[in-house]
Amino acid sequence: MLHAFHAKNESMDLRALRVFVEVVKLGGFTAASRSVHLTQPSISRVIKQLEDDLGHRLLTRDHREVTLTDAGNILYTHALTLLGESARLRTALSDMADLEKGELRLGIPPLGGTMFVPLIKRFKSRYPGIELHLHELASKPTELALTNAELDLGTLLLPVDPSRFNSVPLSRDRLMLVTQLESSWSQRKQVKLDELREESFILFPDGYGLNDLIHTACQAAGFTPLVAGRSSHTQLITGLVDSGMGVALLPMSVVHDATNVAVIELTSPSIAWHIGLAWLQGTYLSHAAKAMLQMVKQHPLPSARPRRG
């Protein structure tokens, strides 16, 4: 009975840590209650029990916002590690079965996510019992999710940091200038990056590695891009370009079929957009993850191709 009691308490502790992490991540009890499917009073009791058990106040609440105390910050860091290890343990144990069932948590970029449809369709056709959990995430949130064992595999810009991640190539692409059909640029076959120094740019939200590529290239060309707006949705970006709000730099594979905007080759420099499927260095890979990696090696995503017409 003593061993059973300890096992039950450990399970309860992990659930309490998960509730605590969700409260911190989502910034409050209300949002966390929807995420963990508990009422707000229940969440309050879980947090109070954690504070009583640890002998420290973990959170302060002010106008429905929560702030970590010093003790809470320490717990949050360790809780992420413990929950990550728990997820990896469950994956390893469930993976003792074969590929007839299981799950794969895959991070794909919001920009160009439709490129993954053929790969996903092929994977589901070969492994119908594997449940795919698809998460649309930018590069930096993907890195964090991989580190916290919230994803098995995620899409990152290449090259990855080899001290943290392994990867296999997914697609080789390059950025194109996207502008109004009526603009003077639309009559050109090629445009040098430094010619765009007076243009307003539609970029991406914080966390997108593509922003870093564009900023680095513009700085090397001698200017800082003037930001007119930000979006992670391709159709909205091209719509804003069409409206005259600014220009954009987008991967060819994303805009090669666009009809409402002009797409022109960008030179001096040509900005590469190479992406790969990555996983955390030293982490356990499930059979499902290994199967996906093998499929990517055999059937990589289409690389950049010329515009039609």
UniProtKB/TrEMBL annotation:
Residues 12-69 form the HTH lysR-type domain. GO terms for cellular component: cytosol. GO terms for molecular function: DNA binding; DNA-binding transcription factor activity. SUPFAM superfamilies: Periplasmic binding protein-like II (SSF53850), Winged helix' DNA-binding domain (SSF46785). PROSITE patterns: HTH_LYSR. InterPro entries: HTH-type_LysR_regulators (IPR050950), LysR_HTH_N (IPR000847), LysR_subst-bd (IPR005119), WH-like_DNA-bd_sf (IPR036388), WH_DNA-bd_sf (IPR036390). Keywords: DNA-binding, Transcription, Transcription regulation. PANTHER family: HTH-TYPE TRANSCRIPTIONAL REGULATOR YBHD, NITROGEN ASSIMILATION TRANSCRIPTIONAL ACTIVATOR-RELATED. Belongs to the LysR transcriptional regulatory family. This is LysR family transcriptional regulator.
